[in-house]
Design goal:
The chain is of the alpha/beta class. The protein is built from 14 helices and 15 strands. The strands form three sheets. Strands 5-3-1-6-7-8-9 form a seven-stranded parallel β-sheet, with helices on both faces. It has a six-stranded parallel β-sheet with strand order 12-11-10-13-14-15, sandwiched between helices. A two-stranded parallel ribbon has the order 2-4.
Length: 377
């Protein structure tokens, strides 16, 4: 076991792509590192996410207030807890951590784990701080980090085209998504929000945060066109600040009997497995873990060919359909084609998901961490 303290910085505890990625890595590294700690600000659920962690993982909650004050709070954490290495996924938090290290007596190594396509995040953000200041600040401070991990090659190309990060200090590592024990039980029965008969319509599922990036409200317009001539329904699984807007769109088209919204479920794999097709309508992604989970369940996928993860997961259409942003006509055409007969073999999809296993990702992260700390394997 390496005598190393590893800290993962999360903005909050709750279900999400980055959160599940860090959960898997944290649990994995309790086997080989002396201490693993989660540094977070808020807990958004009833504690169910926190209970998924290995009992050896430590938790430290901090109360951040404003940009300058946050730097001071992070600096105090570094001096008091003395992590050897801290890994941070949120772009603005990475800048704060780098500044905090500069004024701290304790100098841990810092690894930035990019959580979204950088240019698209800035383009579509509602935050004037991110729109105006993230790029110029990142150009100054990101090269001071010890390493930068990207979730996809597209993300890496985007970052390196704008920020001068030495090539030996940046690498693509796919997220730790699929647990090697394959512990989810696909035999479990998913709750049916329609309480329908055995004569089930063709079911489409969308799963993820109900935020602007995912373009779920926009897809309802596509669904409305399809529903006029097709026997199908849509299950939306997720939570977020645009739930009300999505519900308004459902009501506008009188689709209350055809579209249901449910919170994220512990046994979400069952919902993916029992659906006929998964749709990803996002304007941008980092990687999109739910595409990988859908592959693991053998459920076909149609995804927007957005920057930057979906095309890499689906290998440019080999394991799922890709549709250009804005091409709604093609999206409708492909959904109708899949309704008649799927273009993909379920076994091939499951096999593809194995490329995103926890053990494969953790092994690559371990190499990065030990390189940063100048420790031999």
């Amino acid at each position: 076991m390496h005598p190393i303290k590893l800290t993962f910085l999360l903005p909050y505890l709750g279900i999400g792509g980055v959160e599940m990625h860090f959960l898997h890595l944290s649990n994995y590294f309790t086997k080989s590192y002396k201490e693993v700690e989660i540094l977070y600000q808020n807990e958004l659920d009833d504690g169910s996410y926190k209970r998924k962690f290995n009992k050896k993982v430590l938790f430290k909650q901090i109360n951040l207030k404003g940009f300058i004050k946050s730097i001071s709070i992070y600096s105090n954490y570094l001096d008091n807890s003395k992590p050897d290495l801290i890994i941070v996924a949120m772009y603005m938090e990475a800048i704060k951590i780098i500044l905090a290290r500069a004024i701290s007596s304790h100098k841990p190594k810092i690894v930035i784990n990019g959580s979204a396509h950088f240019s698209s995040l800035i383009k579509f953000s509602d935050s004037m701080v991110i729109k105006s200041f993230l790029r110029p600040m990142a150009k100054i401070f990101y090269p001071l980090a010890d390493f930068f991990v990207c979730q996809s090659e597209g993300m890496k190309s985007d970052i390196t085209s704008q920020i001068n990060i030495p090539p030996e200090r940046i690498k693509t590592i796919f997220n730790a998504v699929i647990e090697d024990q394959n512990i989810f039980q696909l035999s479990d029965i998913a709750f049916d929000p329609w309480d329908s008969s055995l004569n089930k319509p063709y079911q489409i599922i969308m799963a993820g945060r109900l935020v602007a990036q995912k373009c779920i409200a926009e897809f309802i317009e596509i669904f409305n066109i399809l529903r006029k001539n097709e026997n199908l329904r849509l299950l939306i699984m997720g939570e977020g600040n645009l739930k009300g807007q999505i519900e308004e769109k459902i009501e506008k088209y009188s689709l209350q009997n055809d579209i249901k919204i449910i919170p994220f479920q512990e046994n979400f794999h069952c919902y993916l497995k029992q659906s006929d097709l998964m749709i990803v309508n996002s304007s941008y992604e980092g990687l999109n873990n739910m595409i990988i989970h859908s592959l693991a369940c053998g459920t076909p996928i149609i995804s927007r060919d957005c920057p930057s993860g979906p095309s890499e997961i689906l290998e440019d259409g080999k394991f799922g359909h890709l549709v250009a942003l804005g091409d709604d006509k093609k999206m409708i055409e492909l959904i109708r084609r899949e309704m008649k007969k799927s273009s993909f073999n379920s076994h091939d999809l499951v096999e593809r998901s194995s490329a995103f296993s926890v053990s494969k990702a953790a092994s690559e992260y371990n190499k990065v961490f030990l390189k940063c700390l100048n420790v031999n394997n």
